[in-house]
Amino acid sequence: MVSVGTMVWLTSELMFFAGLFAMFFTLRSTQQEMWAEYSGRLDVVLATIITVILVASSVTAQFGVFAAERHQPRRTGGLLQFKNWGMVEWYIVSFIMGAIFIAGQTYEFAVLVSHGVTIQTNAFGSAFYITTGFHGLHVIGGLIAFLYVIARAYFSVKFTHREAHAAVVISYYWHFVDAVWIALFGVVYILPLLV
């Protein structure tokens, strides 16, 4: 039931982000000069690096799911024996990568603000900060969920199907957040380079 509820909720979130994408496409078609000027101020290199990190965190989260499905909450071997890692270790790595993504996004926001690009500057600033900011809030929500699942694994007497299922459901959310970012990255950072 939790899985179905999560999927329904993520579908509603998809509709929310579709509205944000529509805002960007409308801006691009109606304000082409402003779009070109302000999109040129974005740090595509930094965005590419943090995108790769976020996508890689989806891979590590999936390894955590595989461990959870084996009912292996923690590693069974040495720290560098990755094949023996449990769900906790993979989710900690995913958490760190997600936190790096948020730090990179925060840094870019700070640089843009120092150059006078704020949410009040113009429609581009509003669209940029609203879309990437809401996505960032979703990433922070995922980071909190990772901490919840990790804590649950540590404090449970026995790692059961319920704990494993919670880890799987969190991975649905995390993969969704990553997929939305890939689309946002394409629209916000890559599309201006192609047109």
Automatic annotation (TrEMBL):
Pfam families named in the record = COX3
What's the name of the protein? cytochrome-c oxidase
Q: Which PROSITE patterns match?
A: COX3 (PS50253)
The keyword Ligase belongs to this UniProt entry's keyword annotation = no
* EC category: translocase
Q: Which family does it belong to?
A: Belongs to the cytochrome c oxidase subunit 3 family.
Supply the alphabetized keyword list: Cell membrane, Membrane, Transmembrane, Transmembrane helix
InterPro entries, alphabetically?
Cyt_c/ubiquinol_Oxase_su3 (IPR024791), Cyt_c_oxidase-like_su3 (IPR000298), Cyt_c_oxidase_su3-like_sf (IPR035973), Cyt_c_oxidase_su3_a-hlx (IPR013833)
Q: Which residues form the Heme-copper oxidase subunit III family profile domain?
A: 1-193
Subcellular location field: Cell membrane
